[in-house]
Amino acid sequence: MSIDFEDLKDKAVVLAQSGVTRAKEITETGIAKAKEIAEIAKLKVNNSTEQEAIRKAYSELGKLYYAERGSAPEAAYADACQRIADSMARISYNNERIADIKAAGQLTDEEVASAELEPAPQEPAEDAPAEEAPADEDKTEE
């Protein structure tokens, strides 16, 4: 039995060329997919930017409505306007208390600001139960 080296060589060349062609296809497919994924990521970032723009526009719309109609809102908006008014009243009260405390303690804005950076010490509430030590687990020796 004789071996036809030319035929084997031709088959090897064809096989190698098909491998190179396939590798190019895979690479081109990979590049195309990477481009598609990058475009999707860019579009998602754009969507996030647009969502933020919508959120800001809603906020502006709400502020305008509250400024114009907050004292006498239409029925559908009454609850939301009342929550805003209640929160504003609590903020005002808190600001008055801050001013009173600062005046009584002769505190400066700088002292108050530096205290805000430090965590406040935690004191247990008077009516809160004392923390109990964790129960000992049953330990068995093997």
Secondary structure layout plus pairing:
Elements (H helix, E strand, L loop, with lengths): L4 H65 L8 H28 L3 H9 L25
Task: Provide a compact summary of the structure.
Helices cover 72% and strands 0% of the residues. By secondary structure, it is mainly α.
How would you sum up this structure, described in words?
The protein is elongated, with a radius of gyration of 36 Å. The longest helix has 65 residues, at 5-69. The model is unreliable at 136-142 (pLDDT under 50). The chain has 142 residues and is mainly α. The chain contains three helices and no strands. Helix content is 72%, strand content 0%.
| Largest β sheet strand count, sense and barrel closure | none
Fraction of residues in H or I helices: over 70%
How does the overall form come out from the CA principal axes?
elongated
Given the structure, what is the number of helices?
3
Q: Write down the Rg.
A: 36 Å
- What structural class do helix, strand and pairing data support? mainly alpha
Q: Report the average pLDDT across residues.
A: 83
Segments where pLDDT lies below 50 for 5+ residues? 136-142
Strand content: under 5%
One letter per element, helices H and strands E, the order comes to HHH
Q: Total strand count, please?
A: 0
Give the distance, in angstroms, between the N- and C-terminal Cα atoms. Answer: 75 Å
Keywords:
about 140 residues, mainly alpha, elongated, single chain
